[in-house]
Specification:
This protein is of the alpha/beta class and about 240 residues long. It is built from 11 helices and 8 strands. The radius of gyration is 17 Å and the shape is globular. The model has no long low-confidence stretch (mean pLDDT about 95). The structure holds ligand PTJ.
């Protein structure tokens, strides 16, 4: 870790970067994850490294679909595991959703490292990919899923998704909620709900929102979803990346 002083103007961003580097060193994050993180940093810079209104609205919609889900699942890749392990565990507990390891860059060792990492951060059960259950419409390593997890899920929460799988999950009739700093990505466009924000800021807010809405009547949750337009949210996010507002 670096010895950065809190007064450094890039303190927060540089510490998030350190978490990804540590993820690679621990065998949790792929080397490609560093490149993806850099892309995320660039988009975060454009939105002022702040959680904007379009993200707050998407967080409410994501909380509502997770609470209404019959079988929600949280999909975890190497970047998410490095950046927000505690929050993923808390999110799983509060939304009664199992965590499932699902990675794009195939590696049995890394899958195991992610599972161990999540357990170290308090997860009791972490589902792993299997050959018994496979997603349709996709050829990458991400097609291998757990029969009691992503395979039978009606809602999948996937921070930092790759576009192919998001498309496949949607074609299989599942709702997808994602966190993606790039409002132009295929995932952002295909997901049911896209939170355009840094996963590091978005997850604590999502947990807080689920806590707030936990006792809400299903009619109210359905109303939040019916008023939500992912297309409009992405337009607002895109405008923010271009104009700063
Ligand atoms: O561990 P693996 O093998 O599953 O690999 C994980 C990555 C993330 C490398 C893999 O899924 C991948 O290549 O993802 P993509 O297709 O590049 O999509 C990731 C998206 O997340 C991009 O649009 C990035 O801009 C965005 N992103 C990067 N960092 C963050 C982010 N979004 C939110 N918060 C971040 N910190």
């Amino acid at each position: 870790m670096n010895n950065l002083s809190k007064s450094h103007p890039r303190y927060v961003s540089l510490n998030i970067r350190e978490a990804i580097v540590a993820g690679v060193e621990q065998g949790v994050t792929s080397i490609h994850g560093l490149i993806v993180h850099g892309r995320g940093e660039a988009f975060d810079y454009l939105i002022g490294e702040k959680t904007r209104l379009f993200a707050i609205e998407a967080i409410a919609a994501a909380a509502a679909i997770l609470l209404l889900a019959e079988h929600p699942v949280i999909s975890v890749n190497g970047n998410a595991a490095a950046l927000v392990p505690d929050e993923l565990v808390d999110l799983g507990k509060i939304s009664n959703a199992p965590l499932e390891v699902n990675i794009f860059h195939a590696s049995k060792e890394r899958e195991k490292a992610i599972q161990n990492h999540l357990k170290k951060h308090g997860a009791s059960v972490v589902l792993m990919p299997t050959e018994q259950a496979q997603l349709s419409f996709i050829n990458s390593n991400r097609k291998f899923v757990h029969p009691d997890g992503i395979f039978k899920a009606d809602v999948v929460f996937v921070p930092l998704e790759d576009g192919d799988r998001c498309e496949a999950l949607r074609k299989m009739g599942k709702d997808v909620a994602t966190v993606d700093l790039n409002p132009m990505s295929r995932t952002a466009k295909r997901a049911s709900v896209t939170i355009v924000d840094n996963v590091v800021r978005a997850l604590p807010l999502l947990i807080q929102k689920i806590q707030e809405l936990k006792e809400a009547h299903p009619t109210m949750l359905k109303e939040i979803i019916s008023k939500y337009s992912n297309k409009e949210i992405l337009q607002d996010a895109l405008q923010c990346t271009r104009t700063g507002v």
